[in-house]
Amino acid sequence: MILHRVSKWSALKAWGTRLAKKIGAKKATVAVARKLSVILHRMLRDGSEFRWSAREAQAA
């Protein structure tokens, strides 16, 4: 899972970490999984690549 196993920092991981502090780790894990599935679906639809940071998105 992106909150625990991925060491590279991303906006999604930051969002999940903040959410975990508010609502708990288990609910945040489910929320991040859902958000990630929406992102992956969008990537499959339009053929884009995952952007690790906002700076990377602005450069593209």
Could you characterize what this model shows?
- It is a single chain.
- The protein is an all-alpha fold and 60 residues long.
- The chain has one domain (11-59).
- It has three helices and no strands.
- Helix 1 (11-23) runs antiparallel to helix 2 (25-46).
- The radius of gyration is 12 Å and the shape is globular.
- The chain starts with 10 loop residues before the first helix and ends with a helix.
- The model has no long low-confidence stretch (mean pLDDT 83).
Cα-to-Cα separation, first versus last residue = 26 Å
The biggest beta sheet is recorded as: none
> What's the overall average pLDDT, rounded?
83
- Count the E strands: 0
Summary of the model, kept short:
The chain has 60 residues and is mainly alpha-helical.
Looking at this protein, list some descriptive labels.
3 helices, 60 residues
Helices and strands in order, then pairings?
Blueprint: H1 11-23, H2 25-46, H3 54-59
